[in-house]
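Record 1 of the preview.
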Amino acid sequence: MADSTRDSSLAALTALHRAGRLDEAQVGYEAWLLEAPASSLALAGLAAIHAQRGDFVKALDHYARALKSNPANADAHRQKGIVLCKLGRLEEAIECLNRAIELKPDSFVAYNNRAVVLKALERFDDAVADYDRAIAINSEYLSAWKNRGITLRALNRLDECIASYDRALEIDPDDAQIWNYRGHVLRQQGRLADSLASYQEAVRIRPDYAEAHYNQSIVLREFGRHAEAIECCDRATALVPDYADAWWNKAEMLVLTGDFENGWAMFEWRWKSDRHGKEFRDVGKPLWLGDGPLEGKRLLLNVDGGLGDVIQFCRYVPLLVRQGAQVIVEAQEGLIPLLRESFDAIELTPYLKPLPEFDCHCPQMSLPGAFRQSVDQLTADLPYLRAPALLREAWAAKLGPKTRPRIGLVWSGGNLHYKGQEHRSIPLEQMKSLLTNDAEFHCLQKEILESDRAALASLPIQTWEAELHDFAETAALIAQMDLVISVDTAVGHLTGAMGQQVWIILPFDPDMRWMLNRTDTPWYPDVMHLFRQPSLGDWATPLARVREEMLRWIG
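->
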């Protein structure tokens, strides 16, 4: 075959390949290789088809053969690097992409590819530098601007990230994915209206973009627009019926708006979510969700939340015992002495330690759904937790005779790494507005932010962090308080579970269990009073109300 005819035929195969006619292109490449087994271009073309079909091992073999035939094939080095990245062989991928760039230093695509691998290696600064090199060669290269934005977000360089996305949108204003990514960053910056607008633009461009519908629901929920948020979840699940995150978000909003029966049942979708499903432990025994007798069975209540969740949902233990279950409660180490004091005839096992023998299990946050209770049917036999008598006596002696009302304070959560910490916590600078000489104030937090320590030293708040070894100690200290004022933390739950007066200050977008537009809660009737932000970020208003009521309560 003449060289010109050969080149023309190979070009035709390449055209078939680019048109997506993979079967025809593969037949052609294979036929070509029968005549020219060392054809680097045909081997690379066949490798690319294998990669497109997800057969990366075959693709890698064909790229190796292509490069053996022509070591100077820069694009084959580049494509081999991409395949090695897909196989998780990242350092080898870098080597291939380095060689591709040596052979073709003006390849903006290769710089982009190498940056993707560098990001996967968490070498974020190096990745940004490569994206910048790609853009310097071709300032209209959309992928580099988009990927650069993603990497800048990983570096928490959010303003630069937005600028990168905005530049990408100048190149292609109809890229729905970039509008969606942009919405994430704007939400992270607290620019919720702009975030919502970005998500809305994404679904305007791509009405079938399920993820953007779901993301709209998140922001609408934060705005308190729950009916619209639920509609967005419904659109997402209509497009992707097994969209676990959307079902989970809808479940929480149903509970939040008082539809306990449907909401708690739907809450089981959380286990299929990428966000929560990784926390699911296959304990090797059947799941009990209220659908069978418990007489004589050993039932494990396994942890699937935080400390406050264990405290709140252990209220169901007596109901389960009355059904004949032998109840085993899994709990964090710090809760075990308190639970041992509070419940008779149950077994306790430390969280994430080897489990005892059991017949079936129920995650603790699945208990409301298992009992299929409406709001009016909630179980609230208070108190159901109590501090050990010896500890109560020790704390009473430590505090001495009471001369003024004693008020316990909690302004930030105990889990300083909890992603919602900032959302639920009140700056100490604002919380100190509650202080008055007419009461004695005690910090009930075991964990105190370093940034709060200096301020605390000058405030009339007694701290006990070094002595609060576990929740039995905390409960004994709470028992000495006349009132506890807390943000949404385990200490608030503990005070309510002990049947003591507690005022909880909630963010505008509260956890689902607190519902909406209520100053009381059926979880802790008669002892818990709720104070709510009237708008996002406004702690001043509920704090002013708390101070007014506190002064009236002090008398």
